[in-house]
Amino acid sequence: MEKMTEKHFSIWQNLPWFKVQRHGFADAVRWWLPAIVVIQLGVTLISAAVPALLVRLLGARTGLPTLLVAMIGIGLGLGCLQFGQVVVDAFMQQKSVSVRLEMFTKDGADYLHIPFTAAADAQVRAKRAESMTYGYGGDTSGVGVFYGALVHTVQNAFLILVDALILGGASWWISAAIVATTVLAFYPQQSFQRFRRAKQKTMEDQWNPRSYVQHSSFQEENGKDIRLYHMADWYQQKYEHFVDLDTVANRSIERRRFWVRSLSALLTLVRNGVGYGLLVFLAVNQHISLSQFTFYFTLLTTVGTTGEAVLTQYGLLRGANADINTGRRFLDWADDVIKAMPQGKTTPNFGTAPLTVVFDHVTFTYPDGAAPVLNDISFTLHGGERVALVGLNGAGKTTITMLMMGLLTPDKGTITINGVDIQTISPAALRHYFAPVFQESTVFAGTVGYNVAMTHDYDPAKVKAAIAEADLTDAIAALPHGIKTELTTYLHDDGVTLSGGQTQKLMIARALYRDAPILLLDEPTAALDALAESALYQHYQKMATGKTSLFISHRLASTRFSDRILFIQHGQIAASGSHDELLAKSPEYAELYHTQSQYYDEDQSSEEAAQDA
Ligand SMILES: Nc1ncnc2c1ncn2[C@@H]1O[C@H](COP(=O)(O)OP(=O)(O)OP(=O)(O)O)[C@@H](O)[C@H]1O
User: Fold this and answer.
1) Which residue spans traverse the membrane (predicted)?
2) Does ligand 1 come within 6 angstroms of the Cβ of 373?
3) Of 119-123, 157-161, 508-512, which range is least confident?
4) Are 178 and 264 part of one and the same domain?
5) Do 333 and 253 belong to one domain?
6) Is ipTM strictly over 0.90?
7) 451 CA to middle of ligand 1, Å?
8) Mean pLDDT across the stretch 295-318?
9) Nearest residue CA, atom 10 of ligand 1?
10) With a 6 A CB cut-off, is 372 part of the ligand 1 pocket?
11) Which of 482, 515, 548 is the last residue of a domain?
12) Residue of the CA atom closest to atom 2 of ligand 1
């Protein structure tokens, strides 16, 4: 699988990327950026000109009506500009949020489309958590900050240049002081932003444990173990540990920020000292008029704020850009991985006859696994055959089902259905051939009906029939709204929780509703009581009629309902045949069977002894 790049993209490289991610972003920059620059310039210049104008009018002993008209006119003009500023700010904010939400959505969609193995990879999960937090997860993330910081940087940089040029009209020394102090403050600001990023990086190693703690502590299913084993203290310690890490990092960031701001204040003092001193000197020596003095003086007062703003905003922009890079690396990687996925295009029409599945010299290793889980494995599930797959824990039985459904991809070898390589079949079409019952049940926040049909547009009669076949009718009838009852309380306050066995039956109903040509049952009886288990075995005969089926079970007794048994050991098919054949030819299978049957026999004989007594 593709490695995630560590590439750094500059602001100029990220701008076109933004454009690709979000249409309309380029227009927003092209039209609204000049607008906001002009408005800001207008507001600043008019604000500086008002006192100067007043001084001039008063000096010329202008009458009150003229003064009032001038002031009202200026007030209205300023008001209009300020209103324009509010409109543009609101627009920018909305634009920024919509770009961010778009990436947020893309992140979720990408994660759900990358290969199953990648999604389960701890490193990928950590990168995604980091990408979400820094890249586009909230208003303070890279994308949340980038747009506003870009606009305000350009706006304030332009303004300070115009200020310096205008003040150059009084003395070029003032312009020089503005430029020099801004440049001097620039480097500490940038170094501070680098420091902040580096500190944040030290916390990135913590993403996986952090997201695990957050996620697992609030999972309903974990609630009882957390209480039973007093894990609340453990969780609290973890939370405190993360808070401590954040506190230490933030403290050093704030310390550095304090020094940078102090330096900036000192430079402002120098600039104002030079500027105000020169203006007073020029006014006293009558090189500039009183109204000019007032204008320059007011303008110089705003330079401090503008200078600070341009540096802060540029620092924010660079920080946001670095944060965006974190997000972009993940999104670009996900795009590449999705593109590189073997996306079969065909949707073969296999007709209605049962399908034949062939594993041909298949080898598979998990991405973070040291050795292959399956090693050069070959077997055939003939059309209509009921095959049992048995083997010790960790032998690779579930892995075989995942490979068959295309959720995992073999390192070597091919898997075919009716002679067609599954890699050439479109994933959606491929998954339609399977009705699986997984080892772990996955109940989604939806109604019983939804959880059986896995669509909101379900056929209630068909759902009820599947529920009846899975022996769940009475349990569902006892629920407050029957098949319309919400399962889980995550989204619905009136949701209910089914028992482990009922949930497993629900999963069987889901497989029955799907009515696909290949049935995959991975330990479907683990949570069932003896009666339900026995009923399922009986039922299995009917369920599997006309289908190809693979039944995984640790209870070797269940294999008698199958036509053939595959015994898997050390990543290979160690033996294949009927129960009696395997007893004869595989000592390991025989040992496994006798170890299990010993307990059944003992149980039986003690029951018989009890009955005799
Ligand atoms: N996502 C994964 N990443 C790495 N290794 C994995 C992953 N899933 C399973 N494995 C490893 O692959 C091997 C086979 O696992 P698999 O779940 O296929 O076994 P199994 O025969 O179904 O076991 P069981 O009978 O316990 O359900 C095990 O050693 C397991 O640790």
Assistant:
1) 31-55, 67-88, 157-187, 263-284
2) yes
3) 119-123
4) yes
5) yes
6) yes
7) 26
8) 87
9) 366
10) no
11) 515
12) 366
16 contacts: CB under 8 Å, gap ≥ 6: none
CB neighbours of residue 66 within 10 Å: 11
| Cβ of residue 22 lying under 6 Å from some atom of ligand 1 | no
Element housing 360 (H / E):
strand 357-364
**What is the reported pTM?**
0.72
Through-space distance between the first and last CA atoms of the chain, rounded to whole angstroms: 66
Looking at 341-368, list the stretches that DSSP marks H as alpha helix, in order from N- to C-terminal side. none
CB-facing half-sphere around the CA of 291: CA atoms within 13 A: 11
Whether residues 446 and 541 share a domain: the answer is: no
What's the CATH code of the domain at 542? 3.40.50.300
Is 33 part of a structural domain of the chain?
no
Structure tokens at 303: 């330079």
> What domain range includes position 254?
98-339
Residues in the chain: 613
Instruction: List the one residue out of 378, 522, 360 whose CA is nearest residue 436.
Output: 522
Q: Is residue 548 within a helix (H) or strand (E), and if so which, with residue range?
A: strand 548-552
Q: Per-residue DSSP letters for 270-303?
A: HHHHHHHHHHHHHHHTTSS-HHHHHHHHHHHHHH
**Per-chain mean pLDDT for the chain:** 85
Which letter does DSSP use for residue 4 in this model?
A: P
pLDDT for residue 495 is more than 90: no
Residue 612 has pLDDT above 70, yes or no: no
Q: Considering only CA atoms, which residue is closest to atom 16 of ligand 1?
A: 396
What does DSSP say about strands 386-391 and 548-552: parallel, antiparallel, or unpaired?
parallel
Nearest residue CA, atom 31 of ligand 1? 394
Total structural domains within the chain: 3
**The pLDDT of residue 542:** 80
pLDDT of amino acid 484: 93
Burial class of residue 560, CB neighbours in 10 A (0-12, 13-18, 19+):
exposed
Task: Please state, as a whole number, how many other Cβ atoms lie within 10 Å of the Cβ of residue 392.
Answer: 14
Question: Which of 399, 439, 570 to probe ligand 1 with, by most ligand atoms within 8 A of CB?
Answer: 399
Cβ–Cβ under 8 Å, residues 310 and 163:
no
Strand bridging mode 412-417 / 420-421: antiparallel
Most confident of 132-141, 210-219, 269-278: 269-278
Q: Is the pLDDT of residue 23 over 80?
A: no
Domain co-membership, 488 together with 525: no
Distances (CA, A) of 204 to 128, 199, 319, 590: 11, 9, 16, 51
Percent of the chain clearing pLDDT 70 (strictly above): 94
Closest protein CA for atom 13 of ligand 1: 394
Say yes or no: CB of residue 374 within 6 Å of ligand 1.
Answer: no
Q: Pick from 147, 87, 138, 154: which is nearest to 309 by CA? A: 154
Say if ligand 1 is within 6 A of residue 396 CB: yes
Q: Kindly state if the Cβ of 391 falls inside 6 Å of ligand 1.
A: yes
For residue 390, the CA-to-ligand 1 centroid distance in Å is: 14
